[in-house]
Amino acid sequence: MFQSKARSLRRLLRCKHAAVSKASCSRLVLGIETSCDDTGAAVMDGSGAILGESLHSQKEVHLRTGGIIPTVAQQLHRENIQRVVQEALDRSGVAPAELSAVATTVKPGLALSLAVGLEFSRRFVRRHNKPFIPIHHMEAHALTVRMLHAVPFPFLVLLVSGGHSLLAVARGVDDFLLLGRTLDEAPGDTLDKVARRLSLRKHPRCATLSGGQAIELLAKDGDRRRFGFRTPMGQTPDCCFSFAGLRNQVTMLIKKTEAEEGKKVLLPAGTHKPAVVSASVTCAGVEEGTLLSQVSDIAAATQHTVASHLAKRTHRAVLFCKANGLLPEDTPTLVLSGGVASNQYIRRALLIIAEATGLRLLCPPARFCTDNGPMIAWNGVERLREGRGILPPGVDVSYEPRAALGLDLTAEVRAAAIRVPSIRMKIPD
């Protein structure tokens, strides 16, 4: 009894402090996120105030295995989802009976991970007789900025993460125009794979970092001009992305550098003749997995090329939007979101484009760029407010590992063949 009264008192104090309406405070949404390798949950009121949240990251496990193994991710979600949701509820002071709805990511993502969150949520809403709001993961990323800033529709959004890369115009809570998407792999996936090929987990400064974080850290000490990678799709006049070709360029450079550094090792100091070693060792160079002396330069060049590619495609998207009246003339906004958006170098590259084209750039804080419970809860709040996609607890819902976002205009963008003027990408380190 005392704990129940204490929870209610804490919630009332939050409402009073936030100076929000009684209706906003009474609209309480539980958000659940399990689309990939983070188990997240949050309780949020109608004003966007986070009343309680919890997050279990699987990063350390997947770093040890060299990448995300879907069955491992699924098992870790199963082991932690009950605790994570209960922690969010406990910290919020909100009982399940007080919730207005439950919002859960159901698309897109890893099938086995999505299944855990959906199965848990279906049991929860049926047990407590609560409405269910299925959430599109990329829609949630796109709208997170509205939880933090008063951003009216429409706005242009660039979503970049480990599994996705797309450009879209957000015209409403569930109304998007897709201008560009990745044709092969996502930028976060590319950075992670390059980091693994460089064996950055062996680097003393990178042992606990994800691949993208390790690349960003080492790039600060590197010379991006030392290696000139070609920016992808330079002759393709659309807003789609491609990163597989860049990864192939980096891989070939790493192999070449391994061979060259191996030959240097075989030269005795002060001589230009190789030491007496077997021919097989001389041909092989240093063993794959050895940290290269030029690792920071490779990291810097890779990061710069990814940033330039994102910036140039976004520049064309801005020009397409302006030509077709898709953005307001007064304070047009570019939103950068998704896990890769926490990379400060990429943010500065997009800022150059925003300033050159007269847009304001908004980025959520790093903790809201990666997968989290609050962004799902907020998407639920926005949908609940507008009465969109709210289902009764007994309705069957399926997860979708692949799911497009909005109306696809990529063909129209390409047909427009917009020429992008050259902008010097002098990105400050």
Rg calc: 24 Å
What gross morphology would you assign?
A: globular
Strand order of the main beta sheet, please? 10-9-6-7-8-11
Strand residue content = 5-15%
Number of helices: 15
| Biggest beta-sheet profile | 6 strands, mixed
Helix-strand pattern = HHEEEHHEHEHEEEHHHHHEHEHHEH
- Low-pLDDT runs of 5+ residues are 1-10, 12-22, 265-284
End-to-end Cα distance:
56 Å
Q: Based on DSSP secondary structure assignment, what is the total number of beta strands?
A: 11
List its traits.
429 residues, alpha/beta, six-stranded mixed sheet, five-stranded mixed sheet, disordered N terminus
Description:
It is a single chain. The chain contains 15 helices and 11 strands. By secondary structure, the chain is an alpha/beta fold. A hairpin with a 2-residue loop joins strand 7 and strand 8 (175-181). Helix 9 runs antiparallel to helix 11 (295-323). The model is unreliable at 1-10, 12-22 and 265-284 (pLDDT under 50).
Q: What's this, in brief?
A:
The protein is α/β, with parallel strands linked by helices.
Task: Please describe the topology of this protein.
Elements: H1 2-18, H2 22-26, E1 29-33, E2 38-44, E3 50-57, H3 59-65, H4 70-92, E4 101-107, H5 111-128, E5 132-136, H6 137-148, E6 155-160, E7 165-172, E8 175-181, H7 187-197, H8 211-219, H9 244-265, H10 279-284, H11 295-323, E9 333-337, H12 344-357, E10 360-362, H13 366-369, H14 373-386, E11 407-408, H15 410-416
Parallel strand pairs: 1-4, 4-5, 6-9, 8-11, 9-10
Antiparallel strand pairs: 1-2, 2-3, 6-7, 7-8
